[in-house]
Recover the amino acids of this structure.
């Protein structure tokens, strides 16, 4: 019995028991008013029967669900320590790491749908003991949850009467659920920050860590071999590619936004805007493929042509098959719609009266744009560009596919470079152990990336918000 | 707004009508035109970039939607495919070697000269891959009465030759070298084609001379016999025998010599001269068929491009999207309802709002790090499964869903709420019975667009291990799986040339899904959009 209980999928067990508890209580609550005697002919109950049902379901299911959550959080560690304490001494005297691995294997084995004996008596016994422990703890949990559910059920039933404001309580519960959903956003941010900080600290404490100074200012990056963790080449590579991308995206995005908002007829605008937005809808992996297959060879032959010119030396540009320029150009194309739609919003928010004033003074439309509209929209446009830079820094697939893996410091855009995101992917793809400096350095890089983009975003969002308020 | 204010010349003499002013005006109008042109150029560049991108992928993908198959008429000999003791259906289905021997025997019979050396045999067997016989093996296993019958079998042509037939892989030119004369053996054991008197011979000679020093292969064909060119004399060709019926020495031929000049040197390509000759012969015999590459949609990943398909990735993507939708859409909508309808104006609410706007701009790879650290390391969830991938993508698109839902809720006029409240509904009832249904089309549109974004996302999935090689179509959300964008990345990294068109084909599949989702969003908006 315990073995079976230890084996079944825990998720189904929880959903089934919660559903049963909820439905039974709902039914009891809903029908209870029909049985309750009215004290007078005019007395009506405050809430509709359904609300009594919901109230009862809430009373019974919420405590049971809390027990389940507690179980999910606590049981793993508890079962593990219990299992370890029951292992023979010679196994427990293994090093902490090996013991962990041994227990991990036990868990894997026990989690199989139909565990076959491995032939190792101790292992098989421990595995079946693990399943048994699981079964016991689940039985305990089920009893506790049932008890809690029953207690809630009795509590609710005693509260129910005609005057009881069941609806108010149910609605409070609903708002509580809504709040929890909204709080997931905070939890996500917290999860990101905590996990990044935690793993970064582990990185700096791990063997072979370069120390904060060496990490931020070292000029050699060789994380794959676990030797050098100087991030300067990565930062410079990221910056160069982001700069190239902005050289494409900023003028093109801005000019198309200006044209669309100041010159284009409504029909033209209705056609062009969706086409530009198509660019934003294309997955980045497709851009990466385009960059590597079409743009990079073109950049290479262009660089070779420049090298072959009479007045340039043959080694002026390195003309690599993968290049920062290819990645930057394509990334710029990807960011165009981002810049143009944000700037479009900002330019449209400039009050028409300002334009009319300038035009009435005899300015041409382009003079109006340059001398009146753009200065008024400048903070917003800068914010849009900041957001675009933050996006270029965090973009991954294009650089992974088209920029290369070699960490080097160079200003030559036709050579292959690597960026923060490329290295994160390179370090964490494939089978990873979470305890080597190599893997953990990816989290340290992620922390830097997150902090930089966060600062850019915060400034930009603040500016945009202020700006909206100014003209609203 | 669109017209420049007319500079009307004024009657009385003033600085506005002076020559200098008119000049200035001209300059200003020229600046105006330039400014306008910049805008048009910018838009033109963006549209051009889009066109080049789509066209370059489409032209590449085109070839991957068809593939070449070789037709074999094989007798299913029992002793090879189902010998005594290995005749159970599952044993027949996995007897790749046996079926492959049948194919190899047929190839040896078609090109008898290949039986001579190991090297030649290896070359001719490379026309198809071993695993290409798997479908017929499964078929025979299901219908044992096919044993000892003659069955028409189709096996995929190897990827390099497939690419060759589609016109890729080599730079080549076909021409007629002239009228064949007498074929004779010369003293070095080579073949000499003599007495070629033809104007076309001169053109051929100069075409070959142009390629001096680049080490091209020149294949010659007289009737069905193939030669490789060794050297050209003034009116004869020295060649060595390659394949086909052995030449009749001393005979006078009346047929033209076909020449195929392959500019890519043999060391730079993956198909040999002989393989090209064999493929051309098979093709002319009608034994190579170009068929729709249905394997792209029905097969899982493979290490051989000609056998690989995107089925596992399509199913994996669907599972992942289901998990993402189940998580992000309800949570996103409820969060939006809270923020828009119930949230009190306080610090906490402000914090949540700033948070959501920020999360929307966090690089997607950071969510991958979150998934790796929290879901995989802390919670010990399995790697490479749609369940975890879906959750990570769900967190990623949650802000998008919330922001879109809030915009939709905001567009419902307050009069709806006040009317409901006035009739005695509670706030919850007003929201859930009246506001939310009216905002539903807008919310759904936003949700579909968010799902489309999740479908194209790659980076976070790489970090939670969805790059695993999956050669079986998953049937559950907690089985190892991959998704379309990750498959694109994986095939892109493949070394063989044939992966390139395959990758483009998967990109097309992905884009079709995205277009369908966006179309659904647009239709929904058109159909249900309400202006208040």
């Amino acid at each position: 019995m315990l073995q079976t209980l230890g084996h079944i999928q825990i998720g189904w067990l929880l959903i089934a028991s919660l559903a049963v508890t909820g439905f039974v209580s709902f039914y009891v609550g809903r029908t209870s008013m029909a049985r309750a005697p009215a004290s007078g002919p005019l007395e009506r109950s405050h809430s509709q029967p359904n609300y009594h049902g919901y109230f009862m379901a809430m009373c019974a299911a919420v405590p049971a669900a809390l027990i389940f959550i507690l179980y999910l959080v606590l049981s793993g560690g508890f079962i593990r320590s219990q299992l370890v304490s029951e292992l023979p001494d010679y196994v427990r005297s293994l090093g902490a790491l090996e013991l962990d691995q041994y227990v991990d294997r036990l868990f894997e084995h026990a989690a199989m749908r139909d565990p076959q004996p491995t032939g190792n008596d101790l292992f098989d016994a421990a595995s079946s003991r693990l399943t048994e422990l699981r079964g016991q703890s689940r039985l305990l949990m089920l009893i506790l949850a049932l008890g809690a559910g029953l207690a809630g059920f009795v509590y609710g039933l005693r509260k129910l009467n005609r005057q009881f404001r069941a609806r108010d309580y149910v609605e409070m519960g609903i708002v509580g659920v809504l709040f929890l959903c909204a709080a997931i956003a905070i939890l996500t941010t917290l999860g990101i920050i905590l996990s990044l900080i935690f793993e970064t600290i582990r990185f700096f404490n791990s063997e072979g860590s370069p120390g904060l100074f060496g990490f931020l200012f070292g000029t050699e990056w060789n994380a794959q071999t676990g030797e050098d963790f100087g991030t300067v080449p990565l930062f410079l590579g990221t910056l160069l590619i982001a700069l190239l991308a902005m050289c494409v995206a900023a003028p093109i995005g801005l000019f198309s936004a200006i044209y669309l908002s100041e010159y284009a007829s409504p029909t033209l605008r209705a056609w062009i805007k969706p086409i530009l937005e198509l660019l934003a809808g294309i997955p980045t992996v497709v851009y990466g493929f385009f960059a590597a297959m079409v743009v990079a060879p073109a950049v290479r032959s262009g660089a070779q042509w420049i090298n072959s010119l009479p007045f340039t030396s043959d080694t002026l540009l390195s003309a690599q098959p993968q290049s920062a320029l290819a990645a930057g150009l394509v990334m710029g194309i990807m960011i165009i719609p981002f810049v143009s739609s944000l700037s479009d919003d900002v330019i449209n928010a400039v009050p028409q009266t300002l334009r009319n004033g300038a035009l009435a003074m005899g300015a041409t439309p382009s003079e109006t744009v340059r001398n009146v509209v753009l200065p008024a929209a400048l903070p917003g446009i800068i914010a849009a560009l900041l957001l675009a830079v933050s996006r270029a820094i965090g973009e991954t697939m294009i650089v992974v596919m088209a920029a290369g893996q070699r960490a080097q410091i160079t200003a030559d855009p036709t050579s292959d470079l690597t960026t923060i995101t490329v290295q994160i992917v390179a370090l964490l793809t494939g089978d990873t152990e979470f305890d080597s400096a190599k893997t953990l350095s990816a989290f340290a890089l992620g922390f830097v990336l997150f902090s930089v983009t966060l600062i850019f975003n915060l400034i930009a969002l603040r500016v945009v918000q202020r700006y909206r308020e100014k003209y609203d | 707004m669109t017209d420049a204010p007319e500079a009307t010349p004024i009657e009385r003499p003033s600085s506005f009508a002076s020559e200098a002013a008119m000049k200035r005006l001209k300059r200003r109008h020229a600046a105006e035109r330039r400014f306008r042109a910049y805008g048009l150029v910018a838009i033109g560049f963006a549209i051009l970039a889009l066109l080049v991108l789509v066209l370059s992928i489409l032209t590449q993908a085109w070839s991957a939607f068809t593939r070449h198959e070789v037709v074999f008429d094989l007798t299913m000999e029992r002793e090879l495919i189902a010998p005594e003791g290995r005749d159970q259906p599952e044993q027949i289905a996995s007897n790749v070697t046996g079926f492959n021997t049948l194919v190899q025997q047929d190839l040896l019979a078609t090109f008898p000269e290949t039986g001579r050396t190991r090297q030649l045999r290896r070359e001719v067997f490379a026309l198809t891959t071993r695993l290409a016989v798997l479908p017929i093996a499964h078929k025979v296993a299901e219908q044992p009465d096919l044993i000892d019958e003659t069955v028409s079998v189709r096996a995929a042509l190897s990827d390099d030759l497939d690419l060759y037939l589609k016109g890729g892989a080599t730079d080549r030119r076909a021409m007629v070298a002239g009228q064949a004369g007498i074929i004779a053996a010369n003293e070095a054991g080579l073949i000499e084609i003599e007495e070629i008197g033809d104007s076309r011979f001169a053109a051929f000679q100069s075409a070959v001379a142009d390629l001096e020093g680049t080490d091209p292969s020149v294949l010659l064909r007289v009737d069905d016999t193939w030669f490789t060119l060794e050297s050209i004399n003034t009116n004869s060709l020295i060649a060595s025998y390659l394949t086909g019926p052995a030449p009749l020495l001393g005979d006078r031929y009346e047929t033209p010599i076909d020449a195929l000049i392959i500019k890519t040197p043999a060391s730079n390509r993956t198909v040999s001269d002989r393989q090209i000759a064999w493929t051309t012969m098979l093709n002319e015999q009608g034994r190579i068929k170009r068929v729709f590459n249905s394997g792209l949609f029905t097969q899982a990943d493979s290490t051989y491009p000609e056998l690989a398909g995107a089925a596992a990735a399509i199913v994996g993507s669907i599972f992942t999207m289901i998990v993402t939708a189940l998580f992000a859409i309800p949570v996103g909508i409820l969060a939006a309802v809270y923020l828009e309808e119930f949230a009190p104006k306080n610090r906490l609410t402000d914090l949540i709002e700033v948070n959501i706007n920020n999360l929307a701009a966090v690089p997607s790879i950071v969510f991958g790090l979150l998934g790796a650290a929290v879901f995989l390391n802390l919670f010990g969830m399995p790697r490479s499964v749609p369940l975890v991938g879906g959750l990570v993508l769900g967190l990623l698109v949650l802000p998008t869903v919330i922001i879109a839902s809030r915009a939709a809720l905001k567009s419902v006029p307050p009069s709806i709420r006040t009317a409901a409240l006035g009739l005695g509904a509670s706030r919850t009832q007003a929201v859930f019975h009246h506001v939310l249904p009216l905002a539903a089309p807008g919310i759904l549109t936003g949700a579909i667009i968010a799902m489309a974004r999740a479908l194209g996302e790659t980076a976070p999935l790489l970090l939670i291990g969805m790059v695993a090689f999956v050669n079986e179509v998953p049937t559950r959300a907690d089985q190892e799986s991959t998704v379309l964008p990750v498959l694109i990345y994986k095939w892109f990294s493949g070394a063989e040339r044939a992966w390139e068109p395959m990758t483009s084909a998967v990109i097309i599949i992905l884009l079709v899904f995205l277009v369908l989702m966006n179309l659904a969003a647009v239709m929904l908006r058109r159909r249900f959009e309400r202006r208040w």
About this structure: Residues 166-205 of chain A form the longest helix (40 residues).
